[in-house]
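Reviewer comment 2.1 asked that we show a complete input and output for one of the modelled complexes. We chose the adenosine monophosphate case, as it is the one discussed in the main text.
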Amino acid sequence: MRLILLGPPGAGKGTQAFRLAARVGAPHVATGELLRAARAAETEIGARASEYMDAGELVPDEVVLEILKLRLAEPDASDGFVLDGFPRNAAQAKALDEILEEIGQKLDAVIALDVPDAVIVERLSSRLTCIKCGRVYSPSAPPKEPGRCNADGTELVRRRDDNPAVIQHRLQVYRKETEPLIAYYEDRGLLTHVNGVGGLEEVLDRMVASLPVA
Ligand code: AMP
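Response of the prediction step:
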């Protein structure tokens, strides 16, 4: 299944996308995570993206598209994917349409995770992230061992862009650039809104229930 998870930063995309991916049997593809991994590995793409990420700005489309195309070309993505953090603007949505058309594939569904701003700021200010695998932890979903990722034991960190000033800016960028995509996918009959406030399993069940029958 080919899915997109849309929503503001802190809506729970990162927390839920890999769970949803496991449920539908497709890889979780998060452009933010790919970019952070590229930066940690000190690649050229990572260097080109770094300052935009720290400022909460969108990384230029051509950089994100380069890293996304490489990821979607991997064998595990040939049958489907759960996209998280992409597309972020109209040009990226059109580029994705073109990539899919080239390989004769179609999107199955787009889920918009809805969460009020006050909840977003609180979540982002208190979350910890695994830089290696991208898993996200919070006071309501803490790791088993404090400060360590459940999956790989990596030390958890606060993301450089999870600070109040950058959070506000990321929200503005979301409203201006990304939110219009809700109408873009609504017009094509692909979008469902899901309430992102609630327990982890509860929200996941809502997302799964919103999917078209395979
Ligand atoms: P995220 O982990 O999705 O919150 O992304 C973190 C940062 O990576 C964003 O604030 C952007 O700077 C950059 N980024 C991730 N995905 C994209 C994208 N599709 N387009 C542009 N920039 C992106």
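Residues 2-115+177-210 form a domain with the Rossmann fold fold (CATH 3.40.50.300). We note this here for comparison with the apo prediction described in Section 3.2.
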